Each structure stands twice: as structure tokens, then as C-alpha cells.
């Protein structure tokens, strides 16, 4: 028989003539087929069906079944029974049930629903008809044809319930009316002139919007796959949609989203609606947050709030093209043009504090970007008629200039954010009712100045700050809350400069580093007050105890311990992390043009390695760890001939950081969790270095790396970033002592290796641990130093290898003058300091002074 005229017996089911396939109706009367049709065609009210969205406005609730549920409902045995019913009397091999279930199950279900189940034998012969290629928008070239129906049209019409769209990150979709999105619920939360804002919940099985390495990933998953869909629907919907979508994409120019701008996940177009999918801010707008939460009452809470809120400056810096990472600086420059409290959204971060949350810039609908050039005009672009209340004087238009296109600098955004900060500072110092009063006072000022009741509540009259604004700022500085070391400084050193009437306003990244400097200083003051309070409490208790003790009958022998006076010597240079980041950001061209440039000479040619404690207890300091790593890695990259080594306590792998950007990107992806074994990771690093001592280095190695000595490894600086909240009984002394023994064995000095502990937080036990490692070990070579993360950056770099910086002046160890009274009562606290004696003879003072 000709292969083009292949048929079956009289009761056969199929006949092929050329490329035309004639198929009888499937045997719907068979019980197994009837059961299938009840479950998957007529009765879609069962729990196996989920509700998604279709329709040109996403307004239609449509049932769909997930791939996993379909597989659960159609096990292998049921597929075998269906195939047996369909191909009863078939004289050729029937389709393999396992192949159908593994590769064609959705297609098989669709064919059964349209009464064409027997066509599955054709599908299983074609690789490109597998389920992985569903849904079929256009007819595949090898799709079977029927003589009595438009088989593909029927198949395409029936496929949506079996083929909901998987929402993928950063993918745009163009959807037909009946295509189903796996949006299980949606709720309208806001509506403006050009867009509607929906809160939606996406089916977790079809949610691939979040990249797992993004900082927002865990938060999204914890909020049950909740997102925002912004639907543009006005006459110029397509224009506004493209502006905002492209703006969000522009901000991802180096592979990841800025953490302080609301996250963009994807988009879709359906009919005349244009939609973007955004991060859901569960705490609402800034106004809603300030209204629903009382201001922080204690210093620690104020520090926490300001630490998180001032991150919006970093988000604005990203929009302005002022990246923290110089490698990606100035690719594009942007203008937001609509910063106000409604466009700063608040996302919870978990935990018990109301002030541990992320504040993020949103609504880029009026933003605009331009590629960076060296032209003087690069800093200027056309004003896009943004916020009025929070708008700068240079964007104000009289009635005769309403249609004029004004040229503006990025400083218009600085002004707007300065206005927002002014209201936030008012809330901090009072409460939400005072913010409302502040707005009323500005409206009254404007009405008096203009004579119009509808003049608004902006912050200026076109020429100067309103008197109500000036009075508010004076009151915030002079009458701040007790022990508020931040708000007055924010007002005097930041807001007043941001609200400069001229166009010369500070840049966003400069302001961000300034805020860090203010907050870090406040943290130090708070820690100092707490230590003084603790010390005074202990002293009072001990005095009371002494007063109750009987006077000794025999006087104590006189003490011959010398009084130790404060040494007068030239103090080493100092630089804070905030100052260092400010210098880093202001640089162009050569990388290391820092003050005291000569201090890099002793760092050049050394290996530099970081061990970062990624335990759960370090999570609150993650942003500050990043700042320290950011600055030190930036400063050291040119000093290390073959790149910086970066270790993590919860990862066995080592990163060789050749660029500043690669180090930060790897850090951003690393989780902080559990309580890793610091001792094991630390000892492993020292052991690897120790193995290299005394080994000869080949000519080629020394040729490639000119600083490599004939024998042994290059000199090493190891920076350990930790809070020292480790597993119980963690002891690092053995590894350090063993290394010192090997250094002495090979005739090496303490210049060979330096171990610098950089401490985050103020855990008392952790401080004691690091103090003991720094000055409590009897070592013949002093190779360890300890300094707080908000301390002197030059000490972080030199403290373990240069005695000038290693003054051992850390908590609980230094007392400038020891009095005779302390000697006679046995409270001297330190061993004797003699020429040639190791500093390890010092012991912590019992009062922690």
C-alpha cells in the first residue's frame, strides 16, 4: 500500500490521504473519557481549578489548571486507560503513555476537550509539538490538519485554561483577550488621571518575577507573591507606559536594581491597556507611614529610623547617575521630577521594630534620562511639570509661562527631597498632627503672599523660603527631643543646603554620605552614654559595698606601681568611613587620590584578604558592612598585585576580586544566616598561609608578581568584619599562636602578616573576645588589632602592621592615669608597663572604664 494511502480496517479510526488527516470523533461515551470531560470541561468548579485574569482590561475571572495539578489528576494509569479507549482496535502501536504524560500531557488534555484526542498520535511524532512550546499563538508548521474542522483554531481557543502565562522577570508580554494571567486576586488601591494601581497576588507556581539573588526576593516570597500592577489607560497611555518602563530598565544598567528604588519586575500589553508590574510596598506611602506610626521615642529607635530613611538619597543618586560604584558612574543621568511623600513608598523588613523598613523612591512616570557626555549642557534637561508643593523655585511658572519648556538641573530633585526631609524631621520632633499644622501654616503664608486661597502649600514664594519654613527649621534645631543627636544636624547640615534658593545644591550621593557621618556620630555618642551609665551604676554599687565593709586592722603595704601618664606623641591621621566614601565619590580619573596618600606605600605589594562574618547576628549591620567593604576594597585594589581575596564564614569558596564592582555584586548575593563556625574558617585561612612559609617561589612566579619574595608568600593583611557574636567556646587564639610560632621559626617579623578585626555592633561579650585577641595574648609578635567599624579607616588598614596606629585604645582597656587610691584598694586593672614588656600583659579594667 502507498505510504500516502495508509488506512485501517473498516472499523479503523483514522485515514491519511497526503497531508490531510481524517479522524473520527473520539469515543466520548466511554466511561474513562466521560470522567475526563466532567473533570476538565463541564465541571470546572472543583478545587483543582484556579482563578486567573483575562479580558482586555484584566477584568474577567477565568479558570485555569496548573501543570502540577494536571499531572496529579492524570497519573500514568489514567493516561493508559484514556489511550486504550481512544485507540481500541488500532492495528499499529499506540502512543507511549509515559511519553504522553512526560512531554505532551497539556496538549493531550486540550485535544480531549475539543473531541480530537486521537490526534495525540500525531503530536508524539513531532518534537516541536511538545508542551514546552505551549501556548501556540501561530500554527506550527507540522500541526495536523483535519478535513472537517479548523483543528488549530479549536485547539488555540481551548488552550488558555491549560496554558496560563508564567510571569518571568523583566519580560514584556503582548496578550490576546482570552489569554490567562495567573493573577489569583486583584484589588484596586489607587487611581489617578492616567493610571489605576492594583494590588495583585500571583500564583506561586507561575511566579518567576523575582530573581533569587535580589535583595527583595525574600520579602516578596514572605508577602505571598503580592505585587503592584500599574495600568495606564488614558489617551497617551502607551507614551507614559514606555517612559516609566524604560526608566526602570535604565536603572538596571549594571545588572541589578538599586535597592532604594521600588523594584520593576516586568510588563504586559493587552488591547488598549499598558501595564507594568512593580514591587508591593506593604506599608504604603510615606504619608501613610507617618500617619500610622508614632515617631521614635528613644535614641536607638531614632538612629534606626534615620539609618533606613536616608537611604532614599542613595536611590536618588542612582537616578541621577551618581552610582556608589565608580565603574558604572555617569553612563546615564536622570531627573525624577516628581518627588513627594506619595512617591516614597515603605516596605517592611520584618522584625519587631516599626522603624526597620525600607523607604523607596517610586513613580518614574515623569522621569527622563540622557546619556552622559562632557558637554556643559549635560547637567541640564527640560522640566517635565512635576510636583508643585515640593517643587523648586526654578520650576515655578507664572500664568504667562505655563506652556514654556524650562531647562532645569538635577538640583530640582534635591529641593523636593529636602522638602520631604523637612516634614519628616517635623514628625520626628513631634507627630503627624504637627506635620498637618506645618502644611496649614505654609498655605496661610502663600495666601498672604499671593492673595489667592488656592495658592497651595509649597515651601517658597518664588524668591525665598516661607517664614513658616524658616521658623520650623529654627525650632527643630533649638528645641529637639532630649538626646536627639541626629535631627538638628540633618536640618542644619543637610536640609538647609538642599533648600538653597539658588541652583547650587549638594549632590545626592554627597548628602547620603553626610547623613551616614551624622548617624555614625550619633551611634558613638549613644554608646558612650550607655557605657558611662553602666560604669556609674557599677561604681555606685561597689562604693556601697565598700562602705559596708569593716576597716582593715592592718594597712595595705605601699604600692610601688608607677603612675602611667598619657603619652604625648604625634597622633596618626584619621578618616571616617563616611569621609572616605565622600572622597571616593568625588574622585574622577586616578583611583586613590585620598588625603595622606603616602600611607598607601606600606600597603602596596601586599596580599589583602577579607573574611566577612555572614551569621544571622550580622544581618542588622549588612548595609554598614557593605559600606566598609565598599571603601576598603576601593582603596586596596591597586595595592594587591593579583586582586583581593574575599572569604565568607558560611561558604567554603574564595572569591578573587579583580574589580571593585565584582566584589560588591558577590556580597549583595550572599545570604546572612545561621551561626557559622568562625574558628574553622579563620583557622583554615591561617593554615593555608602558614603552609607557604619557607617554600621557594619559582622564577616565573616572581616574574609575574614582582613583589613575591624568593621564599614564602607575600606579606598579608587579613581584615575580619564581624560582631564577634560567635558559637559558644569559639577560640581563635590557637590558630594565631601557631602562626606566630611559624613566623618566628622562619625569622619573620610582625610586618609579615596583620590580622585586623573590624567590629560591628557593641555586644559586650564580643568586645571582650576581640580585646583578648588584640591585647590579652602573650605573643612575641603582635600581629592582631581590633577597631570599631565606625572608627578610623587608616587604623583599619594599618593597625595590625604599624604600632603608630595600634594604640590598643579600645573599650575596656585604656585608663590614662591610675590613682594611688586604686592601687591601695587593689583596683589598678592593668599589669605593669615596662620597657620591652609585651602589651599583652594588660588586663581589662573591672569597671570597663
TrEMBL record:
User: What are the boundaries of the region Disordered?
Assistant: 538-590, 808-849
Q: Where is the composition biased (Basic and acidic residues)?
A: 812-825
The lineage's top-level taxon is Eukaryota
Check the record and name the Gene3D superfamilies matching this protein.
Transferase(Phosphotransferase) domain 1 (1.10.510.10)
PROSITE patterns assigned to the protein according to its UniProt record, in alphabetical order? PROTEIN_KINASE_DOM
InterPro entries found in the cross-reference section: Kinase-like_dom_sf, Prot_kinase_dom
One example GO MF annotation = protein serine/threonine kinase activity
Q: Where is the sequence biased in composition, kind Polar residues?
A: 538-550
Give the signal peptide range.
none
Tell me the Pfam families matching this sequence.
Pkinase
* Every Protein kinase domain range: 183-519
Feature: compositional bias, Basic residues: 561-570
Identification of the protein by name: Protein kinase domain-containing protein
Source organism per entry reads Ramalina farinacea
Amino acid at each position: 500500500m502507498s505510504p500516502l494511502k495508509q488506512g485501517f480496517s473498516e472499523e479503523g479510526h483514522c485515514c491519511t490521504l497526503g497531508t490531510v488527516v481524517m479522524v473520527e470523533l473520539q469515543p466520548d461515551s466511554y466511561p474513562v473519557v466521560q470522567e475526563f470531560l466532567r473533570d476538565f470541561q463541564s465541571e470546572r468548579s472543583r478545587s483543582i481549578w484556579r482563578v486567573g485574569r483575562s479580558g482586555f482590561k484584566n477584568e474577567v475571572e477565568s479558570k485555569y489548571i496548573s501543570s502540577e495539578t494536571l499531572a496529579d489528576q492524570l497519573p500514568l494509569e489514567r493516561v493508559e486507560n484514556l489511550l486504550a479507549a481512544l485507540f481500541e482496535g488500532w492495528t499499529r502501536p499506540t502512543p507511549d503513555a509515559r511519553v504522553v504524560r512526560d512531554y505532551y500531557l497539556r496538549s493531550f488534555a486540550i485535544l480531549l476537550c475539543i473531541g480530537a484526542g486521537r490526534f495525540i498520535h500525531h503530536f508524539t511524532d513531532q518534537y516541536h509539538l511538545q508542551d514546552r512550546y505551549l501556548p501556540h499563538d501561530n500554527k506550527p508548521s507540522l500541526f495536523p490538519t483535519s478535513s472537517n474542522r479548523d483543528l488549530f483554531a479549536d485547539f488555540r481557543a481551548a488552550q488558555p485554561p491549560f496554558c496560563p502565562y508564567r510571569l518571568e522577570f523583566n519580560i514584556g508580554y503582548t496578550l490576546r483577550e482570552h489569554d490567562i494571567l495567573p493573577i489569583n486576586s486583584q484589588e484596586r488601591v489607587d487611581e489617578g488621571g492616567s493610571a489605576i494601581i492594583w494590588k495583585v497576588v500571583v500564583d506561586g507556581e507561575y511566579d518567576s518575577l523575582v530573581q533569587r539573588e535580589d535583595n527583595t526576593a525574600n520579602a516578596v516570597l514572605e508577602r505571598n507573591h503580592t505585587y503592584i500592577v500599574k495600568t495606564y489607560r488614558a489617551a497617551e497611555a502607551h507614551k507614559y507606559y514606555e517612559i516609566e518602563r524604560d526608566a526602570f530598565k535604565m536603572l538596571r544598567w549594571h545588572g541589578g536594581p538599586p535597592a532604594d528604588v521600588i523594584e520593576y519586575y516586568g510588563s504586559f500589553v493587552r488591547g488598549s491597556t499598558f501595564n507594568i508590574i512593580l514591587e508591593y510596598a506593604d506599608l504604603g506611602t510615606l504619608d501613610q507611614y507617618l500617619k500610622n506610626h508614632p515617631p521614635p521615642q528613644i535614641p536607638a529607635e531614632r538612629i534606626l529610623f534615620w539609618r533606613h530613611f536616608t537611604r532614599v538619597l542613595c536611590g536618588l543618586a542612582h537616578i541621577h547617575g551618581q552610582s556608589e560604584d565608580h565603574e558604572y558612574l555617569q553612563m546615564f543621568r536622570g531627573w525624577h521630577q516628581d518627588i513627594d511623600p506619595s512617591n516614597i513608598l515603605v516596605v517592611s523588613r520584618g522584625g519587631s521594630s516599626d522603624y526597620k523598613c525600607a523607604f523607596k523612591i517610586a513613580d518614574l512616570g515623569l522621569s527622563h534620562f540622557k546619556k552622559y557626555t562632557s558637554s556643559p549642557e549635560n547637567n541640564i534637561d527640560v522640566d517635565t511639570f512635576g510636583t508643585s508643593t515640593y517643587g523648586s523655585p526654578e520650576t515655578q511658572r507664572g500664568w504667562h509661562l505655563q506652556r514654556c519648556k524650562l531647562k532645569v538641573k538635577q538640583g530640582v530633585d534635591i529641593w523636593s527631597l529636602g522638602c520631604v526631609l523637612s516634614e519628616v524631621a517635623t514628625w520626628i520632633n513631634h507627630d503627624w498632627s504637627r506635620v498637618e499644622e506645618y502644611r496649614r501654616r505654609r498655605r496661610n503664608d502663600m495666601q498672604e503672599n499671593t492673595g489667592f486661597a488656592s495658592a497651595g502649600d509649597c515651601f517658597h514664594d518664588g524668591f525665598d523660603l516661607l517664614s513658616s519654613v524658616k521658623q520650623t527649621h529654627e525650632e527643630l534645631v533649638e528645641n529637639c527631643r532630649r538626646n536627639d543627636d541626629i535631627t538638628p544636624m540633618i536640618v542644619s547640615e543637610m536640609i538647609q543646603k538642599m533648600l538653597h534658593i539658588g541652583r547650587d545644591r549638594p549632590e545626592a550621593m554627597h548628602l547620603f554620605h553626610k547623613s551616614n557621618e551624622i548617624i555614625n556620630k550619633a551611634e558613638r555618642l549613644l554608646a558612650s552614654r550607655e557605657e558611662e551609665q553602666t560604669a556609674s551604676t557599677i561604681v555606685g554599687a561597689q562604693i556601697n559595698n565598700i562602705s559596708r565593709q569593716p576597716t582593715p586592722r592592718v594597712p595595705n603595704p605601699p604600692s610601688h606601681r608607677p603612675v602611667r601618664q598619657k603619652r604625648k606623641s604625634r597622633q596618626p591621621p584619621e578618616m571616617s568611613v563616611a569621609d572616605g566614601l565622600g572622597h571616593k565619590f568625588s574622585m574622577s580619573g586616578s583611583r586613590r587620590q585620598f588625603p595622606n596618600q603616602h600611607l598607601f606605600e606600606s600597603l602596596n605589594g601586599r596580599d589583602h584578604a577579607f573574611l566577612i562574618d555572614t551569621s544571622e547576628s550580622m544581618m542588622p549591620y549588612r548595609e554598614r558592612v557593605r559600606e566598609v567593604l565598599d571603601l576598603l576594597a576601593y582603596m586596596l585594589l591597586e595595592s594587591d598585585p593579583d586582586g583581593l581575596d574575599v572569604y565568607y564564614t558560611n561558604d567554603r569558596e574564595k572569591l578573587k576580586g579583580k574589580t571593585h564592582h565584582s566584589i560588591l555584586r558577590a556580597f549583595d548575593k550572599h545570604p546572612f544566616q545561621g551561626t557559622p563556625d568562625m574558628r574553622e574558617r579563620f583557622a583554615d585561612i591561617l593554615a593555608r598561609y602558614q603552609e607557604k612559609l619557607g617554600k621557594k617561589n619559582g622564577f616565573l612566579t616572581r616574574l609575574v608578581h614582582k613583589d613575591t619574595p624568593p621564599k614564602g608568600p607575600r606579606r598579608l593583611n587579613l581584615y575580619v568584619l564581624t560582631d564577634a557574636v560567635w558559637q559558644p567556646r569559639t577560640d581563635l587564639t590557637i590558630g594565631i599562636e601557631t602562626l606566630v610560632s611559624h613566623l618566628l621559626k622562619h625569622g619573620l617579623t610582625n610586618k609579615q602578616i596583620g590580622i585586623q578585626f573590624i567590629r560591628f555592633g557593641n555586644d559586650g561579650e564580643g568586645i571582650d573576645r576581640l580585646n583578648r585577641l588584640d591585647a590579652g595574648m602573650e605573643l612575641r609578635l603582635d600581629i592582631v588589632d581590633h577597631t570599631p567599624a565606625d572608627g578610623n579607616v587608616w587604623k583599619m588598614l594599618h593597625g595590625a602592621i604599624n604600632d603608630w596606629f595600634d594604640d590598643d585604645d579600645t573599650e575596656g582597656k585604656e585608663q590614662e592615669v591610675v590613682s594611688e587610691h586604686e592601687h591601695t584598694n587593689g583596683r589598678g586593672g592593668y599589669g605593669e608597663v615596662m620597657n620591652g614588656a609585651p602589651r599583652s600583659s594588660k588586663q581589662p579594667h573591672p569597671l570597663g572604664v
